[in-house]
Amino acid sequence: MAGSGGTPCASCKLLRRRCTAECVFAPYFPAEEAQRFAMVHRVFGASNVSKMLQEVPAAQRADAVSSLVYEANARVRDPVYGCVAAISFLQQQVSHLQMQLALAHAETSALQLQLQDERQQHILVQNAHHQLMLQEACLKQESMWT
Amino acid sequence: MAGSGGTPCASCKLLRRRCTAECVFAPYFPAEEAQRFAMVHRVFGASNVSKMLQEVPAAQRADAVSSLVYEANARVRDPVYGCVAAISFLQQQVSHLQMQLALAHAETSALQLQLQDERQQHILVQNAHHQLMLQEACLKQESMWT
């Protein structure tokens, strides 16, 4: 834990300064997570990260650190596009899925129409069949009388 | 244009330094786009942006600047999640669309089975109908002879 003579946090260790009880980094960058701090320091700079954290309510600082670490990792992996590459990829995936969904809905509508048509044809044939059965019954009865 | 005594770029203007012909920012942050540079400077720091641009091949620097400006704008709009908010939103949208697509495919399969079943029933009724028509024709012929 930071300050009061304990192990300095990853930030104070890297920046070689005394880690006080008020250190804004200490709760989010413990000494054993040196790489995590090195990453955000490399991309955003410790001073900017400190300012950004101080502008955020304490209850949301852990989330802010997570998102900064995520962005920094993405920028180190892809120096040109950073996490914007993930956004582009996801936007393409959304467009592709929306197109596939529109096609699937069109197929469903076409099948529903075919089914409706098939059922109407079925009813027509069934009615004709019943009428024929009736006629046949009459003919049989007639042939019995003659 | 920067350097050679011309108007300094947005970066050199903000940082109050002489804009030379070698200025790494000048091609991407012209004097009239002060706000664009102020944003990346606020989030990443001019020194980090300069380092990041120098690590990227010249042909990809314009793309790198665009993505840095995008990330910086997102961070200023949402200091807790930055552009990670867009990633989360898009990931949720992808999950939702994948679920809707799975449902649509299941509906399509069910309709195809119903249609197949309906067609088989239709054929059965049609065959019975034709058989009946034949029987009726025979009966009529018989009644003509009797």
UniProtKB/TrEMBL annotation, chains A, B:
Highest taxon, organism lineage: Eukaryota
Annotated ranges, domain LOB: 7-108
UniProt-listed InterPro entries: LOB
PANTHER family documented for this protein: DOMAIN PROTEIN 12, PUTATIVE, EXPRESSED-RELATED, LOB DOMAIN-CONTAINING PROTEIN 4-RELATED
UniProt family annotation: Belongs to the LOB domain-containing protein family.
Protein name: LOB domain-containing protein
Organism: Leersia perrieri
